[in-house]
Design brief:
Shape: elongated
Number of helices: 10
Order of helices and strands: HHHHHHHHHH
Number of domains: 1
Strand content: under 5%
Largest sheet: none
Number of strands: 0
Radius of gyration: 18 Å
Structural class: mainly alpha
Length: 217
């Protein structure tokens, strides 16, 4: 699949960017929290999504600040793009199809996971992450969306109009030019440096140097 042009993969990868998906995730919580009957669902979504986001941030800060990673697995932290995509897109698509039959809602969620997998592939195609990092991101994000949707399986689906979901998806474009990455990674690097008291964050090059010195093939 990587024979496709770089422009294609950079376009796909942006749909997992935090500047795009964090507002979408927030809007989902807002729409679910407006009505009393769906407010517990909103809190469940915030809890699951927030916990996953914290794990991603901690994994990146641990590596950039203290070099906590795996040279053998080429692991420097959980892929945030992939986690966000696997968390948000299945839930967003499922909510869009909330008025449909159960199999329609399931198909919509499955489409979201497929899209998230494509975003994960894009991270490999542009050499932003290793396979282990993308796999970890997809597993964590799929756990968030899967657990959220599983808890909704035996309950009436929330009645959200598709226009609300469209607003959620389009709203980030008002403040963020399409294709422009959010400075999340740089911000985490600054935090890591200050917490660890070092001059610069650890990088993948440092990890590979460590791997070379250890004689790991």
């Amino acid at each position: 699949m990587f024979f496709l042009p770089d422009g294609f993969w950079y376009t796909i990868t942006w749909f997992g960017d935090s500047g795009f998906l964090l507002p979408v995730a927030a809007w989902i919580a807002v729409w679910l929290g407006v009505r009393t009957v769906t407010r517990p669902i909103a809190w469940r979504w915030l809890l699951l999504f927030g916990a996953a986001g914290a794990l991603v941030a901690l994994s990146k800060i641990a590596f950039m600040g203290w070099g906590v990673g795996s040279a053998l697995l080429n692991f420097t932290g959980i892929s945030g793009h992939t986690m966000l995509a696997a968390s948000v897109w299945p839930v967003a698509f499922w909510l869009t199809a909330a008025h449909g039959e159960p199999r329609v809602r399931f198909s919509a969620a499955t489409l979201g996971w497929i899209f998230a997998a494509l975003i994960g592939l894009s991270r490999l195609a542009i050499y932003a992450h290793s396979k282990s990092e993308v796999a970890a991101g997809f597993a964590l994000g799929a756990a968030v969306s899967g657990l959220f949707l599983w808890r909704q399986h035996q309950r009436p689906p929330p009645r959200l109009h598709w226009i609300l979901l469209l607003i959620s998806i389009v709203s980030p474009l008002v403040f963020l030019r399409p294709g422009t990455p959010a400075p999340t990674q740089d911000a985490l690097g600054v935090i890591a440096v200050r917490l660890a008291g070092i001059e610069r964050p650890f990088t993948r090059a440092d990890l590979m140097l460590r791997r070379h010195r250890a004689g790991i093939k």
